[in-house]
Write a structure and sequence with these properties.
Nucleotidyltransferase, domain 5; two-stranded parallel sheet; alpha+beta
Length: about 100
């Protein structure tokens, strides 16, 4: 929470060498919402990342990303899921990304 007392909830997609390729604000994130986000955005995200066909999706152990609906949609989009262990700051690209923003 910032000093103004407001919370901004965003999904950020980061691609190595490209930086943030998507920043999507949401109000409530659940499995159905994330599955719709995958359906509506992943093709464009992978195209913008331009990784020669690679569809690696690194997730940060958010339970929403592990819902059966979300996993099914990721499979439909041919995304290979890489789950990082919790609290592994050395390899958590999301935490490292936000450290750079500070």
């Amino acid at each position: 929470m910032g000093s103004g007392g407001k919370v901004v909830k965003v999904i950020v997609a980061i691609s190595h060498g490209k930086g943030a390729i998507v920043c999507h604000q949401y109000d409530k994130l659940d499995g159905a919402y994330f599955a719709r986000f995958v359906q509506d955005n992943f093709e464009n995200m992978f195209r913008r990342a331009n990784k020669n066909g690679s569809r690696l999706f690194v997730q940060d152990n958010c339970p929403v990303q592990n819902s059966s609906l979300a996993r099914r949609m990721l499979r439909d989009k041919r995304a290979k899921q890489l789950k990082l262990p919790p609290r592994s700051g050395d390899i958590h690209c999301i935490e490292n990304f936000f450290m750079q923003l500070k």
